[in-house]
Inverse folding.
């Protein structure tokens, strides 16, 4: 924006036209021509010819201002000020002493202050009128307001006429914008120097602003002065001095503990959402380890929160962080990076990112934009930033003046006494980047164990409502589990969430949600301001993904599983042959860039639209319909759009011979089963990955048969076989009847208990071994199968001990896993189902036969305390021999001799005498047989025979009594 040219054009306007322009700027609303005529008459303005102003005069003036683009057309033929020249026109009114009269005329006609626009208008008027009390009263509830954009461009004459408190506020408020965009005059820096020289206004916000400006300039003297004046109480200042000297290790050691997730409380200067936080992100990006990138992510969330004034620059650094974590889509990375460096400070950040992430010579930035950024830095005296950008240009192989740039950068550093951080790291080749990212992923795969936590924050959310409204509850752990929780006020959370003494239990995910909390002010029916608290919708939607403590209102049993998805473009053919293009899903509210989809009762997907996908959604305007003969053009468009958004189509590329060729691949039909833990069981969902990666996944048989996408810049077309996918799914359900019995939707299943979940895992195991399915645990494994055991693995040792037989043994599950018999018996007592629970939430599956045999052994045998065996009396030998028949038995000679004696006795042929005049029942026959084999048994077996005889005698006695009483035998 060239303010000098605009000011010249405004000065060339006649008095009446300038007044109308000023009126629109101060009023900051849509004006109809009749409104402008009424206000001009109230204010006593005349026409260009000095006559009473008329409707025709207003029409001519408005048309002229519209032609010059000073005004913009609005709804219903109204007009409003062009925001790019609004403050310039207001300053013109202030210097011409017309501002107060315009304000009086507007207030007489309109009663303001119900909307946020009127709130900004009130603040702007209070600022230019020098009303400090009114301005600060409206400002205090929201701390800062980016849309005010006051004294832009800087005007030293108006600035000098302001009260001191407003001067200081303006310097603090405008510094981030000036350092980021470099869109102001050097007079701003001069005003800052003059104010700093007074030395009597060094509160925390002003010191933080001085820290930003001193860092951007490379002004070591300024930083040392601030350090001395604050008596070294702010380590952030000393950290920035180390950064300017090129000592990034000392910079990180001093500043990192005060960053989000650090061990200390955050510094009072708020470096996490100012310029030091941006450079901290860059230093962590250069380190590239898993922990460093995770810390950089936390800083990014804070830097882009409601109070973050360097959001745009933080987003540029975050593009590099994402590429470091997943360095696969280099073309997309370059595109996003080139689009993000519109501001000079973003261009410098992008230069660091390119130098540290891409190989030398692989430049993704526009050279002219970098040169313009250098010029902007030099104009404002931001010498250190200019030197760094010159140094980056000096490394470019595409710049003809690279050596000259490098030499000039070194001269600036020598003059300032500073160092450079350009050589902080060296970009690796693409294969090394991918390998490092995989290593970092492996290192960062562990999750913190919060099982010992005694306090936590949970969030209630109704996914069906819009906008996203969360209710926080503070829970404490009791002997019976988590308490119901006490609701936390949003005002208290907004003010104190970073206070570790009050909210020290908040996790990093909780902090990410808190950082999206902001405020806005409205006026009630009595015109008193009221402060409201609300979450930034897009920010909180991103923070909700993967959070483990989001619950439905009133439901504390099962948390909501929240997943992140991307939209897709669908190409279909209608019955009449026409072809349609539509976005799936579509945005339900036009200006939002995300969509919440409730998949099941406790499953929610949030679909995020990036800038280009959002623009594509607006261009489609719902659904684009084209005639059948436009298939060539649509296929070409689909292959190009695949670089922006995945495209699935019912129409293949073969239908259009003229379409550009992409590499055709056969889609992978292997079933991919996602398993997620619930409170007590498991839920499963079935997908297919056409490109063998989870970047694009579909439910079997759903979606188009042709999938277009770009991977590493190469266009690919996967040809799916939906019928085969459905067949494979039906075969899966036939092989897994347990999972099929717990169906929720066509592709989702819910197993309510651990036993049911283990049954499903047991049924899936052979399918996985045959590569017919693959299992995925996106949230980690809550439990696992250690194996399955049968009678084939049971081995028993039997030996005589005194007058008893002692049994011990082992169960062999596999070559690496065995269990003692007594250990299995102990586990069976606490595991009523077919699974026994081992340590680390592992379960062992037993066959029904094995479980019955082991339970019978435990029932017949006597377990001695402190001994690893069971003891059997001789009388139970027959039962023990029957139980051990199917196992692998090792026995001593006493056992063998004893069992042989029993077998010999049982082999005797005993016949009931034919002279016996009675019909014996079964148990009577057993008693007769036992009495006859009595000589072959020892006394232990005699007791059994005696018991049978006693029972026989008792029965005979009862029968005799019954006969005497006239009853039949």
């Amino acid at each position: 924006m060239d303010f000098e040219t605009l000011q010249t054009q405004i000065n060339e306007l006649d008095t009446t036209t300038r007044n109308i322009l000023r009126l629109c700027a101060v009023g900051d609303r849509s004006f109809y021509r009749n409104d402008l005529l009424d206000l001009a008459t109230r204010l006593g303005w005349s026409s260009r010819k000095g006559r009473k102003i008329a409707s025709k005069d207003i029409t001519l003036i408005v048309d002229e201002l519209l032609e010059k683009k000073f005004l913009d057309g609005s709804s219903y033929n109204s007009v409003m000020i062009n925001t790019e020249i609004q403050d310039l026109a207001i300053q013109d009114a202030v210097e011409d002493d017309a501002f107060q009269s315009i304000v009086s005329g507007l207030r007489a006609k309109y009663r303001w202050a119900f909307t946020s626009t009127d709130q900004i208008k009130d603040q702007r008027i209070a600022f230019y009128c020098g009303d400090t009390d009114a301005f600060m009263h409206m400002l205090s509830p929201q701390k800062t307001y980016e849309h005010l954009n006051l004294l832009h461009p800087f005007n030293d004459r108006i600035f000098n006429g302001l009260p001191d408190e407003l001067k200081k506020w303006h310097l603090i408020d405008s510094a981030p914008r000036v350092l980021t965009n470099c869109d102001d005059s050097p007079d701003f820096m001069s005003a800052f120097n003059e104010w700093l020289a007074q030395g009597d206004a060094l509160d925390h916000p002003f010191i933080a602003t001085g820290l930003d400006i001193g860092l951007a300039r490379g002004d070591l003297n300024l930083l040392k002065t601030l350090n001395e004046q604050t008596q070294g109480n702010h380590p952030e200042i000393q950290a920035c001095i180390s950064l300017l000297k090129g000592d990034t290790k000392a910079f990180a050691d001093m500043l990192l503990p005060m960053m989000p997730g650090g061990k200390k409380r955050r510094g009072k200067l708020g470096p996490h959402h100012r310029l030091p936080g941006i450079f901290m992100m860059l230093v962590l990006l250069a380190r590239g380890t898993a922990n460093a990138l995770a810390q950089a992510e936390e800083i990014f969330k804070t830097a882009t929160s409601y109070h973050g004034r360097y959001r745009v620059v933080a987003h540029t650094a975050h593009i590099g962080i994402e590429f470091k974590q997943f360095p696969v889509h280099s073309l997309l990375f370059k595109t996003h990076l080139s689009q993000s460096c519109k501001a000079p400070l973003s261009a410098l950040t992008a230069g660091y990112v390119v130098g540290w992430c891409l190989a030398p010579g692989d430049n993704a930035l526009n050279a002219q934009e970098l040169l313009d950024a250098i010029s902007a830095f030099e104009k404002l005296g931001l010498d250190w930033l200019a030197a760094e950008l010159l140094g980056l240009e000096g490394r470019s192989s595409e710049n003809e003046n690279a050596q000259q740039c490098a030499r000039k950068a070194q001269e600036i550093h020598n003059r300032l006494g500073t160092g450079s951080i350009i050589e902080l790291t060296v970009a690796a080749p693409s294969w090394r980047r991918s390998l490092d990212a995989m290593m970092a992923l492996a290192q960062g795969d562990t999750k913190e164990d919060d099982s010992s936590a005694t306090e936590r924050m949970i969030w209630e959310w109704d996914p069906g409502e819009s906008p996203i409204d969360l209710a926080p509850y503070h829970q404490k752990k009791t002997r019976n589990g988590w308490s119901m929780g006490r609701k936390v006020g949003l005002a208290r959370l907004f003010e104190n969430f970073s206070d570790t003494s009050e909210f020290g239990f908040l996790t990093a995910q909780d902090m990410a949600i808190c950082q999206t909390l902001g405020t806005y002010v409205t006026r009630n029916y009595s015109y008193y301001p009221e402060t409201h608290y609300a979450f930034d919708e897009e920010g909180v939607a991103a923070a909700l993904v993967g959070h483990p403590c989001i619950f439905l209102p009133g439901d504390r049993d099962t948390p909501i599983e929240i997943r992140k998805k991307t939209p897709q473009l669908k190409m279909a053919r209608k019955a009449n042959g026409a072809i349609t293009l539509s976005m799936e899903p579509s945005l339900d509210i036009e200006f939002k860039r995300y969509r919440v989809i409730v998949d099941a009762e406790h499953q929610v997907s949030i679909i995020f639209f990036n800038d280009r996908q959002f623009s594509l959604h607006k261009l489609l305007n719902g659904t684009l319909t084209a005639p059948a003969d436009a298939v060539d053009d649509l296929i070409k468009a689909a292959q190009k759009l695949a670089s922006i958004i995945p495209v699935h189509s019912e129409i293949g590329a073969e239908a259009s011979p003229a379409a550009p060729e992409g590499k055709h691949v056969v889609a992978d039909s292997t079933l991919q089963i996602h398993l997620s833990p619930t409170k007590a069981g498991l839920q499963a969902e079935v997908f297919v990955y056409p490109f063998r990666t989870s970047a694009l996944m579909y439910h079997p048989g759903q979606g188009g048969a042709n999938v277009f996408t770009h991977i590493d810049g190469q266009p690919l077309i996967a040809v799916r076989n939906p019928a085969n996918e459905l067949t494979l799914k039906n075969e899966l359900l036939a092989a897994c009847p347990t999972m099929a019995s717990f169906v929720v939707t066509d592709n989702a299943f819910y197993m309510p208990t651990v036993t049911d979940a283990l049954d499903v895992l047991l049924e899936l195991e052979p399918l996985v071994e045959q590569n017919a399915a693959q299992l995925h645990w996106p949230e980690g494994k809550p439990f696992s199968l250690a194996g399955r055991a049968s009678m084939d693995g049971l081995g028993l040792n039997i030996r005589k001990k005194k007058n008893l037989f002692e049994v011990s043994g082992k169960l062999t599950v596999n070559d690496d896993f065995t269990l003692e018999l007594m250990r299995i018996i102990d586990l069976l007592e606490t595991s009523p189902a077919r699974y026994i629970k081992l340590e680390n939430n592992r379960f062992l599956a037993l066959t029904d036969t094995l479980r019955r045999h082991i339970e019978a052994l435990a029932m017949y045998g006597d377990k001695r305390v402190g001994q690893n065996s069971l003891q059997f009396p001789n009388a139970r030998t027959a039962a023990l021999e029957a139980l051990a028949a199917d196992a692998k038995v090792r026995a001593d000679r006493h056992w063998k001799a004893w069992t042989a004696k029993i077998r010999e006795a049982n082999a005797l042929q005993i016949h009931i005498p034919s002279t016996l005049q009675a019909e014996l029942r079964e148990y009577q026959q057993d008693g007769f047989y036992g009495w006859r084999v009595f000589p072959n048994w020892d006394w232990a077996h005699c007791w059994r025979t005696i018991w049978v005889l006693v029972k026989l005698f008792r029965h005979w006695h009862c029968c005799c009594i019954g006969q005497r009483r006239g009853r039949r035998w």
The CA atoms of residues 215 and 521 lie 34 Å apart. The mean pLDDT is 78. The first strand starts at residue 71 and ends at 73. The chain has 39 helices and 32 strands.
